[in-house]
Write a structure and sequence with these properties.
Structural class: alpha/beta
Oligomer: single chain
CATH topology of the largest domain: Rossmann fold
Shape: globular
Largest sheet: 6 strands, parallel
Order of helices and strands: EHEHEHEHHHEHEHEEEEEH
Distance between the termini: 65 Å
Strand content: 15-25%
CATH architecture of the largest domain: 3-Layer(aba) Sandwich
Number of helices: 9
Helix content: 25-40%
Number of domains: 2
Number of strands: 11
Radius of gyration: 20 Å
Strand order of the largest sheet: 1-11-8-7-5-6
Bound molecules: guanine
Amino acid sequence: MNTKSKKTAEIFDGKKLADEILLDLRKKIQLLPSRPGLAAVLIGEDLASHLYVNSKKKACQKVGIDFHEYLCGEKCYRDINQEGLLEMIDFLNNDPVVDGIIVQLPLPKEFDTQKIIERIDPKKDVDVFHPKNYEKFLTDDNQLTPPLIQAIQIALSQVRENLAGKQTLIVAKNEIFSQSLDKALEKNGLKTEVANPDDKDLLAKIKMADILISIVGQKHFIKATMIKPGAVVIDAGTVLGEDKKLFGSVDPKAEKVASFITPVPGGIGPLTVAALLKNIYKLANNKL
Ligand code: GUN
């Protein structure tokens, strides 16, 4: 008999919690005088982007949000360019049945992503990508929170341990995003640090982290052996692999080392979608 104790981490069920949030939203939305609307613009044929937009569509259908799909690719709006996309956003900005607009990223390289994001009316910016909204999010607690940040905060709130003052490492390439997550978690009482995946001291920083948040777009980038025993591990990196299977940025073997871990799929992903829908509800409700 194997007498070695094989402690494994608590595996967070993001799907279950997301379904609870959606159920609650559905009830609130039924009380609104009209159904909220989300417009999603997707350019090109990237399979992962299509999957993500589809999961947003399904979630909208569950809660009673009208989903206005603008799929621009081989079948439709084939020749759309930067100007055309800006015009489409202007149209959606003025469309009264649209409460929120998302332009699925990444855009094909011929588009100027920053210009596109800045064209979205800040009052319809459910992703909280517009610089004005970002700024407000960092300075004013009453504004919308970016969905991924909400999802990470919700997951951390489920850890049955006092996290105050815990050493938290955010591993991410996108500096704008990691800096705002950093500030948000600092406000929540964590001791935070940000590292780029290329940081030469990355291994040492990961080994010190009581809470590790990985937002890296590379399959199983973080190995079990890198992690501090007993750490809380939040995997917010998703990669679409072979056979349309989703993989995280943390090797699942990390379950044997961590005390709490969010899986991919079924962890942060569904919660991010639920948080996006919460933002649409807030925008639709604010309009009343
Ligand atoms: N691409 C990957 N994640 C996101 C997201 O949260 N919003 C948008 N618009 N595009 C994405």
